[in-house]
């Protein structure tokens, strides 16, 4: 075993404590000073941006780009400022355009910062620079913006200068502590050396008749008294210790044998559990894929059913129009067309063309809706979602699996112009799974029922969807584990138990929200889903 003397320990402890105290003090001081210095730089950046914004108002009003560039060039005397952009608000489109800029000599230009202006009204600090924006206001109207980027090089130089000063003070202080500790060590170590000599003789010669002499130091005197008492009792304990060691050795041998046996049994059990768990994951993945393929089949059937009717009507109308055109061609060749027949032919043509136009338009709308649903289901990219139109597409996609719409209506409640930016694909899958779940489970044996889906904004950054039906509800024995995988009331009747498990994963992991479930048997269900979105203005 590696040993170290008390002399060194004493020095090490004093130096370590002193070092720690100095490091903490210097660190707190340097961090505080650097933070204050950076705050002063942020205030300086904000002041510069306000000055530039005030000066730029006249240039923006008179569209005097040359004057503004000359004014910005005076910033070369300021080493702090790296880049300045002046943006002008277009009076017709109400959008920002690039007006003028300043770039510190030796630095390349930077791209425009249109998208970040609203977030930089208060200075933002990055690794190497400070950014701030300031609106240019004239008669209480924003006519443009000023973007300013300042360097943090001065803050870094200040920090390193502070660290250098602290390092010098740190070394000098440690040197002084070391000298004081050497003086203090002699007072403690001298009586300790005599104690060590006696103890070494007892350990080497096993001469338990030796005793420690009294000491002027209270602590060492107490230790001598205790050590002398211990020597008196050591002889008595030696025999009993030997017997105890023999018993402990036998007990340890038996314990090691039992531990070896149980460890082997535990390894075998863990191996079997891992194999079982791997098989369960494989089965779960296969069932989820089967669920997706079943949904895909239903969607394809819905497309075929919905598109078949308008296409069939269009084909019938075009066939009738072709027959009438053939008859009219024959009469035209024989030069026996009357005015009334020609008028009736034109009327029939117009009527058939109207039928073809309406039905082909309907087919095109259906294909567009199905195309959007398909794109949403295969994409997790945020896009702008107009909720009423989005719900219309969802209802079309689930039409093959819906019950009679007259007896089991689905009512949608949301503001007419509600448009948000979110992941349409996962939201579409959540709604389809909830609706299909109600059709299959909630209304079994019912002659009528109703589904209500409402959308409201919670603040400006969260969308709340409340989904309810008045079906049979969920039994109390599976109410608490409704989102667990393979939990279903249709075991053996086609239910996989993965629908609501998939809904929970989509809401919590993909959409980044939460879902709450409430139900009483024979009183329907209620799902409350909240997830973050970006509200899109209707302007």
Strand and helix layout:
Layout: H1 6-62, H2 65-73, E1 81-89, E2 96-103, E3 124-125, E4 129-138, E5 141-151, H3 153-205, H4 218-334, H5 339-377, E6 382-386, H6 387-397, E7 410-413, E8 419-423, H7 424-442, E9 451-458, E10 462-469, H8 476-479, H9 499-510, E11 514-519, E12 525-532, E13 534-535
Parallel strand pairs: 7-9
Antiparallel strand pairs: 1-2, 1-5, 3-4, 4-5, 6-8, 8-13, 9-10, 10-12, 11-12
What key phrases describe this protein's structure?
transmembrane helix; 13 strands; 60% helix; five-stranded antiparallel beta sheet; 9 helices; five-stranded mixed beta sheet; alpha+beta; single chain; 539 residues
Q: What does it look like?
A:
This protein has 539 residues and is an alpha+beta fold. It is built from 9 helices and 13 strands. The protein has helices spanning 6-62, 65-73, 153-205, 218-334, 339-377, 387-397, 424-442, 476-479, 499-510, and strands spanning 81-89, 96-103, 124-125, 129-138, 141-151, 382-386, 410-413, 419-423, 451-458, 462-469, 514-519, 525-532, 534-535. The strands form 3 sheets. The protein has a 5-stranded antiparallel β-sheet with strand order 2-1-5-4-3. The chain has a 5-stranded mixed β-sheet with strand order 7-9-10-12-11, covered by helices on one side. A 3-stranded antiparallel β-sheet has the order 6-8-13. β1 (81-89) and β2 (96-103) form a beta hairpin. The model is unreliable at 372-378 (pLDDT under 50).
